[in-house]
Amino acid sequence: MNTMVINPDPAFTDRIRSQLEREGYNTAVATDVASALVLLEDHRPDFLIVDREILVSEGQVLLRTLQQHGDLPILFLTSAKNSERALQSEAPNLDRIERVLRRVKAALAEDLPVVRLGELLIDVPKKRAVFRGKRLPLTPIQFRLLSYLAKRAGEVVNYRELLRRIWGYEGDDQEAKELLKVHVRQIRRKMGLQVKDGQYLVSARGFGYMLIDPDEDQTSQ
Fold this sequence. Notes:
By secondary structure, this protein is α/β, with parallel strands linked by helices. It folds into 2 domains: 2-107, 3-Layer(aba) Sandwich (Rossmann fold); 110-211, Arc Repressor Mutant, subunit A (Orthogonal Bundle), CATH 1.10.10.10. 45% of the residues lie in helices and 19% in strands. The protein has 8 helices and 11 strands. α3 links the parallel β3 (47-51) and β4. The termini are far apart.
């Protein structure tokens, strides 16, 4: 398996790389998003380990680029420079990585029925979404996100639950919001929807997202 670590702390990344390579993982290291983008030209990772602060400062650039390489499981970690305790506590346990991968694979295999909401049809067994008669060119993660919201249609699903269900790991609200924002924007664009329309995929600011049936009397926040 190929992995990539994106973290500005050399001591932290060296510790992670050593641990992963001892277990047979081919590991590339980048100190920032610019370096990671160069590595992505030749190194196709199966899994990413990314610093939380990079997500906040450069998350949109990174996620937009990753969409071109397919959707990848991501584990977010923060190191504290010059802190041996932090290095020990934050070094990624391989069992934790395997748990994330198992949960992502389980989400992919989830068998949900065909759902129709207004002009939107989601056929999960066939991995197909059609809106207003046209098939939506969704990435795997975008399809899983739309499918899960369809399963919970009419409910606001909070950021952290979506992070757990779609990406397969626990994180805080900030991480979840940054990840979701990029994908929700792309889904809306592919559906030809504007935020101001308040149709189908809507935001409950500060809480999460929901998919609504246009025939129901729902209002977005």
